[in-house]
TrEMBL record:
Protein name: Septation ring formation regulator ezrA
This protein's record includes keyword Transport: no
Coiled coil: 437-464
Species of the source: Lacticaseibacillus manihotivorans DSM 13343 = JCM 12514
InterPro entries: EzrA
Length: 557
């Protein structure tokens, strides 16, 4: 029983603490700040929409204070009574309801405060903005009055704008002073745009007006007189200059209307485009003037360059024709040179046409200068090709002499090989060796025949020289093998005589080796007798070989 009573008493104390906290939260919802703000705004003398907005916020505040906050105080007293009566379930429910009501009331007062602050701030904002607009307006007005000449026909429209803005400033000030700051703020938006537009016009118009009124007319007069002067000198242009001048004059006339009507953006676009067109007309005329000077300066040199290239080509063709009678030209030298001749003829013809245009006063000098530049590049390319062809054929005679000398050297080498082999007085030569010797001999005869032709192909002869040179080296190797094998076989058979009576296998090997020797199979014969001797006397072969090599004089191969 004591435990139960203690628990109930403890729960009551907890609820009392929570209720005390809720009471403090209710007091914080309205600290009196809003009440003071309402009194301050009430003394501003509001009117119109501002007064209506203030009145609504004031009524909303009174409703929250007198109904919702007062109701919260009553609810707190009721919960205290419920707690004393041990109605704990109902106490918990009531506490949750009070918390929700506190949050709702606080949100409403926050919204009301925001609306009141906006009303209060509107007065300051309108006042400051109005001051700024007056300052900007006065600065623009001062510039217009002081430099009225700089605005030309735009001045009446600008003065009308000044009057309109002055009236609007007065009206906004009147509305603001009456206390209707909300209405004044709305009117201020349009007034701000008007003043900003005026500032932009005052800043941009003087330069645009100066360009239209002072610069363009002088430039167009200069272009017109310049064109007629150059036309009298028979200049022809890539652009219709008179039409371009007329187009620019029409644009200037339109620009004057745009100045009068204060169409500043359109005017700026028009001026930029017209300036670009006028610059283009100047560039067109200047291009032809400069081109004529360059053409006159370059004509003589280019004529000589063309003539030199044609002469060079003619000489080259004669040389190629002469060489073609003795040599086969394998790199299309004649065809290339003839193609270059046709190209040079076309260049010369175009150059003559250009001179006729100059004489007939129909020349567009910039186009002729472009032709000159391209022609000069083409002539350099032709010259380079001429030099390449010359370099390719200039050594044909030298190459022929070198080929004849090489052929003589090869013939001497084969003759020396034949002599050296015959000097050893062998009973005969192996068939493969003779076949290859005949191949080399036929190659030499064919080379001699190719060199004795009326017209020779040095590229093919060069290939033959490489092949014959390699074959002669191979023939030397084969000749050395045949002679050395036969010599070694003879020495080995002589050395074997000392063992024939005592070693039947040596006698048998000697007989077999002699038979192979007589059939010109010298290498096999030497191997047979050498093998038998090595069995009887190891190292015998090396001993015989050393003696053989010492007895040999320097061979031709």
């Amino acid at each position: 029983m004591v435990v139960v009573v203690g628990g109930i008493w403890g729960l009551q104390r907890v609820n009392v603490a929570k209720l005390h906290q809720l009471d403090q939260e209710v007091e914080k919802v309205d600290t009196g700040e809003l009440r003071g703000l309402i009194r301050t705004i009430a003394n501003l003398g509001l009117a119109g929409e501002s007064l209506r907005a203030f009145t609504k916020s004031q009524r909303d505040y009174q409703h929250v204070v007198e109904n919702e906050l007062a109701g919260l105080q009553t609810a707190l007293l009721d919960v205290e009574l419920e707690n004393k009566q041990f109605q704990f379930v109902k106490v918990r429910q009531s506490q949750n309801e009070i918390k929700a009501a506190i949050i709702d009331a606080d949100a409403k007062l926050t919204k009301i405060k925001k609306a009141l602050v906006a009303i209060q701030s509107a007065q300051v904002a309108v006042r400051d903005q109005l001051k700024t607009l007056r300052t900007d307006y006065q600065a623009a007005r001062k510039t217009i009055l002081a430099k009225s000449y700089a605005f030309d026909s735009a001045l009446p429209a600008l003065e009308a704008e000044l009057q309109t803005i002055a009236t609007s400033l007065h009206e906004v000030a009147t509305v603001s002073e009456s206390g209707d700051h909300a209405a004044a703020s709305e009117q201020m938006d349009g007034l701000t745009v008007s003043v900003s537009t005026l500032q932009d016009e005052v800043a941009r118009l003087p330069k645009l007006v100066n360009t239209v009124v002072n610069e363009f007319p002088g430039q167009l007069d200069e272009l017109d007189s310049g064109f007629h002067e150059l036309a009298a000198q028979h200049f022809v242009f890539t652009q219709d200059v008179p039409a371009g001048i007329e187009e620019a004059q029409a644009a200037v006339k339109l620009a004057h209307d745009q100045i009068t009507d204060l169409k500043v953006d359109d005017l700026a676009d028009n001026v930029a485009k017209t300036a670009e067109n006028i610059d283009g007309l100047y560039a067109t005329m200047e291009k032809e003037l400069n081109a004529k000077t360059a053409v006159q300066k370059q004509t003589g040199d280019l004529r000589q360059f063309i003539a030199h290239a044609q002469k060079q080509n003619h000489t080259l063709l004669l040389e190629l024709d002469h060489l073609n009678q003795s040599y086969t030209l394998t790199h299309n030298e004649q065809q290339t040179a003839e193609s270059l001749r046709d190209q040079l003829d076309a260049i010369a013809e175009s150059f003559t046409d250009a001179q006729h245009q100059i004489q007939d006063n129909t020349a567009i000098y910039s186009e002729i200068l472009s032709f000159y530049n391209q022609t000069r590049n083409d002539l350099h390319a032709v010259e380079t090709q001429h030099q390449a062809i010359n370099a390719g054929v200039s050594d044909l005679q030298a190459r022929e002499h070198q080929a004849v000398a090489s052929a003589g050297d090869f013939a001497n080498a084969v003759r020396d090989i034949k002599y050296e082999v015959s000097r050893h007085q062998l009973p005969g030569l192996p068939r493969p060796y003779l076949d290859f010797f005949n191949v080399v001999t036929k190659e030499l005869k064919q080379l001699e025949n190719d060199l004795n032709q009326v017209k020779i192909n040095l590229d093919d002869i060069a290939k033959s020289l490489i092949k014959i040179g390699e074959d002669i080296d191979q023939l030397k190797d084969q000749s050395r093998t045949v002679v050395d094998s036969a010599g070694m076989c003879e020495q080995l058979l002589q050395y074997a005589n000392r063992y024939k009576t005592t070693h039947a296998e040596v006698e048998t090997a000697a007989t077999q080796a002699k038979d192979l020797y007589q059939h010109y199979n010298y290498s096999h014969a030497a191997d047979v007798i050498a093998a038998a001797l090595e069995k009887v006397e190891p190292g015998a072969y090396q001993k015989v070989e050393d003696d053989y090599l010492k007895s040999q004089s320097a061979a031709l191969f």
